[in-house]
């Protein structure tokens, strides 16, 4: 059972990747968690499918006692509800679900652009083959997703003054999907610095939102700490 004494565990590779969405939930909530990063058990349990108990298809996985849960968006929604980072109204809860799913679609597309030949082979074995997919993603997909995210912020913050220092996706308080959006913006900037510079001036709310989120005290401390894993340098991971 899930006892309150049991510590949260995050099972994920020792890199930013999709695990970063989950780390931001724990870090912003100030909830202790332990990382299980050793590649061997992760490979055996998930790639080798030797995991017992509740079936989880792939990491990231969270675990507390014998409660285990996978799927990045689902994990973020669950932790959002546990940690009070959840929209108040039912309508906004489902809208947040929609936005979270779109964020996960975006990073999945970004990752696959680097794996045009084989989704699971390293990028470095298919660099030349997959470059056109990366170019297409930069030219056609980043300019499709960023304005959608900008429009979401505009919809919720339309009645706030230009100088408002708290932009949120829903209502007037932080929710899990703000953290998900923050991560995907950071991943875009890290992976595609030139495209980011070329695009972001068109999206002033996104730029302000990212800056505000990164200066929240717990997140700021986390990003400056050794706990914060570096981006891998390919695949938005």
TrEMBL record:
GO MF, any single term: glutathione transferase activity
Signal peptide span: none
PROSITE patterns for the chain: GST_CTER, GST_NTER
Gene3D superfamilies per record: 1.20.1050.10, Glutaredoxin
Domain of life: Eukaryota
BP GO annotations: glutathione metabolic process
Residue ranges annotated for the GST N-terminal domain, each copy included: 6-87
Alphabetical list of SUPFAM superfamilies matching this protein: GST C-terminal domain-like (SSF47616), Thioredoxin-like (SSF52833)
GST C-terminal domain span: 89-231
InterPro entries from the UniProt entry: Glutathione-S-Trfase_C-like (IPR010987), Glutathione-S-Trfase_C_sf (IPR036282), Glutathione_S-Trfase (IPR040079), Glutathione_S-Trfase_N (IPR004045), GST_C (IPR004046), GST_superfamily (IPR050213), Thioredoxin-like_sf (IPR036249)
Classification via PANTHER family: GLUTATHIONE S-TRANSFERASE (PTHR11571)
Subunit structure: Homodimer.
Main function: Conjugation of reduced glutathione to a wide number of exogenous and endogenous hydrophobic electrophiles. GST isoenzymes appear to play a central role in the parasite detoxification system. Other functions are also suspected including a role in increasing the solubility of haematin in the parasite gut.
Protein family membership: Belongs to the GST superfamily. Mu family.
Name of the molecule in the record: Uncharacterized protein
Organism: Macrostomum lignano
